[in-house]
Amino acid sequence: MLPEFKITQLRHFVWVAELKGFHVAAEKAHRTQPAISLSIRDLENKLGEALFEKRNSRTAKTELTPFGRHFLPRAKELIAHHDRIAEDMTLLAEHKTGHLRLASVPSIASRFLPELLLNFIGDSELHVSVFDDNSGAVLKMVENQQVDFGIASLFDEHDQSEKHFTPVWEDKLGVVCLKEHPLAASRELHWRELQQYRLISNGTSRLLAGSEAEPLLAHSQYYISNMISLIAMLEAGFGITTLPWYAFPRDNTRLTFIPLHTPVVTRRIGIIRLNNKSLPPPAQALVDFILAGQQD
Questions:
Q1: Which domain CATH number covers 74?
Q2: Where in the numbering of this chain does the HTH lysR-type domain appear (predicted)?
Q3: Residue 1: inside a domain, yes or no?
Q4: What interhelical angle do 22-29 and 7-19 show, nearest 10?
Q5: Same domain, 75 and 157
Q6: pTM
Q7: H or E element, residue 175
Q8: In what helix (H) or strand (E) does residue 218 lie, and over which residues does it extend?
């Protein structure tokens, strides 16, 4: 007979695994440590395997067994699926019209989504959750079905056969630096002109891969993934970076954007969804709305 899992027990297991301790997991669950231990023991009995290694001392961190490491992502998947259903049914019970979840790269989330969503939602009661992150994280959220669809770049479209990519926006790569920087007087730049300056790479720097400017990736000593931190470092005069035009903060008064003319590197951003999987009605309606707006 197959085991019947309790979501509460799965949550306890995930918390103990991630926090590496029964005591901290008990604090998070607002339960006693013996109660958490009993919950885990019952789950192990259902599975027929131990989930955690025996600890040698009270101070040792709790470590997963090989079976526990294999079970952890599946437990998370079950919890996420349960929570999505519970949330959707709660909204339905409260007479809401549905819940739309999407993930987007920050450049589109800040530059285009506010007006798009305002015009799309109107005065409806549609609930919307927007997650903004880099393209890699957006792809992961689409793959894990944490969102209905994503808005991002596919850096290797041939290696993403399980996803469908519909291009919507396009911009070009440029150099971002302080307005007082020696490069700021240039109308456009050759990539070799950047080599004498401290270069900060970021999540979009992979656009240079495969172009004649690829040596800049090895030349870069620093990497900053967060856009707020990257802008702060640029404003402090720490160095220069490359960014697509839509990622450049339009209201920034201290930085400037200089187009890169050699090579010309173009970024395509579009809608990413799983193949052979229908979108929920609100998500499909938003996709149709976005695509219709590009045809006007």
A1: 1.10.10.10
A2: 5-62
A3: no
A4: 130
A5: no
A6: 0.65
A7: strand 163-178
A8: helix 215-219
Domain that holds residue 148: 93-168+268-295
Residue 263 maps to which CATH number? 3.40.190.10
* Residue 59 burial (C-beta neighbours within 10 Å; 0-12, 13-18, 19+): exposed
- Same domain? For 164 and 213 the reply is no
3-state class (DSSP) for residue 234: helix
The answer to whether 290 touches 168, Cβ cutoff 8 Å, is yes
Quickly list DSSP for 246-289: GGS-TT-SSEEEEEEEES--EEEEEEEEETT-PPPHHHHHHHHH
* Token pair 């495969």 in the structure block, residue: 210
The predicted-structure confidence for 210-236, as pLDDT tens digits, reads as follows 999 999 999 888 999 888 999 999 999
Residue 147 has pLDDT above 70, yes or no: yes
Assess whether 155 and 273 both reside in one domain. Answer: yes
Over the range 210-234, which residues count as b (16 or more CB within 10 Å of their CB) and which as e?
Answer: ebebeebeebbeeebeebeebbebb
Measured distance between the N- and C-terminal CA atoms of the chain, rounded to whole angstroms: 58
